[in-house]
Each structure stands twice: as structure tokens, then as C-alpha cells.
Design brief:
Blueprint (H helix, E strand, L loop, with lengths): L1 H15 L1 H4 L3 E7 L2 E7 L5 H12 L7 E6 L3 E5 L16 H4 L7 E4 L12 E4 L17 E7 L1 H8 L3 E2 L2 E13 L2
Antiparallel strand pairs: 1-2, 1-9, 2-7, 3-4, 3-9, 4-6, 5-6, 5-7, 8-9
Length: about 180
């Protein structure tokens, strides 16, 4: 009897949580080196996901590049030349708040030293990057999803020739789109 009550209570908690009804969003990042499939978490990182998807839906990233690569750390991409003054920075959703960590394959927003400065550039972690999750005096970087397929493409890009972290030949982002 106790087990039935616990089972019913567990089902109530699961079925009434926002996560039970909110679907993760899948996005394909098509590059000239291959495709990376990413799942975004709009429940735990709603501001960041909404921002990223607004750029995806506007086809902003199409024709952009992965331009920065550090093996064992990150690959960074975007389409900075297409940013305008109308593209406003978003408020940081820190990993300590969202619970989404900068682990191997995490997709996160790039920013300056100002925590609330992320606009459109993003990065994908090549290996676990706990230091990007923040600490006492550092809010970290807003992870908002992770790679489902295509980590071999991330690792390939991370290991391409670079000078001062900038790829000698940037990898073209053919397009980024929502998957059905």
C-alpha cells in the first residue's frame, strides 16, 4: 500500500511539473564539415533559448561561421557581421540557476566580461568545462542545451589549424534550423 501511494505521488509530481509538458527543441547546425544536432532546454533556460531561436528563425546564422576553436575547450560561432544595434543583449541565465552545466557537448552563449552581454554568438564545449559554470564571483556562461549527434564534427572543428584561437579557415555555417 505504501508503495502505491509513493508511486501515485511520484506520478503526480512528474505529470504536474512544467518539464512533463514542455518539449525540448531540436536544432540542426549544418556546416560545410558536417551536421551537428542540438537539443535546447526552453524550460530551464527560457530567455536564452528564446533569444537563440529568434536568430535561428530569422535565418541570421545562415552563412555565418565557426571562427574560433580551442581543442579540448570550445568552438565558437555566429554571424557577427549581421548583428545590428537593434540586437540587444540578454540577461544571463547562469548555470547555478538553470542547472544546465557546461559539460562536453553543451551549447552556451558567448559574452564579454559583462555577464549580461550575450547577443548572438554561441559556443559548443569540447570536453567538460566546469570553470564556465561560474563560482562565487563569476556567474559563468549560459548553457542552454547540448549536442545529441555530431560531436565528431565539433571535435574536428576544434582541431583545425588556428592562430591565436582563430581558425585559419573558418568553418561555414550553411544554415541552422529547427527540426520537426
Amino acid at each position: 500500500m505504501v508503495y502505491r501511494v509513493l508511486l501515485v505521488l511520484a506520478l503526480v509530481v512528474v505529470l504536474t511539473s512544467p518539464r512533463a509538458f514542455a518539449a525540448d527543441v531540436r536544432v540542426a547546425i549544418v556546416t560545410d564539415r558536417g551536421e551537428i544536432e542540438v537539443v535546447l532546454d526552453p524550460v530551464r533556460a527560457p530567455i536564452t533559448v528564446k533569444n537563440f531561436l529568434s536568430f535561428v528563425d530569422a535565418k541570421f546564422y545562415d552563412g555565418g561561421t565557426f571562427f574560433r576553436a580551442i581543442p579540448g575547450f570550445v568552438i565558437q560561432g555566429g554571424n557577427k557581421p549581421h548583428e545590428s544595434n537593434a540586437d540587444k543583449p540578454i540577461v544571463l541565465e547562469p548555470p547555478i540557476k538553470t542547472g544546465i552545466r557546461n559539460t562536453d557537448g553543451a551549447i552556451s552563449m558567448a559574452r564579454t566580461n559583462d555577464p549580461d552581454s550575450a547577443v548572438s554568438e554561441f559556443f559548443i564545449c569540447d570536453g567538460d568545462q566546469a570553470r564556465l559554470d561560474g563560482g562565487m564571483n563569476d556567474p559563468g556562461y549560459a548553457a542552454f542545451g547540448h549536442v545529441l549527434k555530431g560531436m565528431e564534427i565539433v571535435r574536428l572543428i576544434a582541431r583545425l589549424p588556428a592562430q591565436n584561437q582563430m581558425l585559419v579557415a573558418p568553418v561555414k555555417i550553411v544554415r541552422i534550423y529547427r527540426e520537426p
